[in-house]
Write a structure and sequence with these properties.
mainly alpha; three-stranded antiparallel β-sheet
Amino acid sequence: MTMKVRDVMPNAENSTNFDVVTDSQTQVGTTLDNLKAAVQGETGASAKYAAFSKAAQEAGYEQIARQFAATSAAEQIHIKLEVAEIKKVEPDYEPPAAPDACGEATDLNLISGALGEIYETSDMYPSFIKVAQEEGNAAAELVFTRAKLAEAVHAELYLDAYNNIDAEDDRQFYLCPVCGYIHKGDDFEKCPICFAPKSSFKVF
């Protein structure tokens, strides 16, 4: 699963997939409120994917275990970026502790992961991006935008793993340390979201 590299980095101005779903479930506040909500959501997702990784490993799904581990780490990148923006306003802000999480059957965990990532890419982050634009907060808009684009790829990878759960291969997952994009396999040169070079990626 790949995301094509464009001539310019994708953003809300030069892309046409930033609309908010019509039945939005996102509670929207100020950009500061939204950053805190994003940190809360990403913290839960990261913990959930770490638990899913452990469950997949125990069930014998080695590649899927690595995928969940990579995605858990990707959410940590988003958390770090969002916390940095919050601390510009509230230097004493302390992010929430990771909640307890456990996994179910791996096929169900993959669907759970895909649904969560689809929500973030089609509802939560587009909603937060609009507020950041209205407030003129370009830094928060960039953080939300990169997370939104990465989550869409995470969802695609989860569905691919779900469809091929009984036909795993030995390809590795490459995690962009800048934006949390994940590439399956080594057939790429740079991140299609932030243009970070392949040499900087972490391998799972």
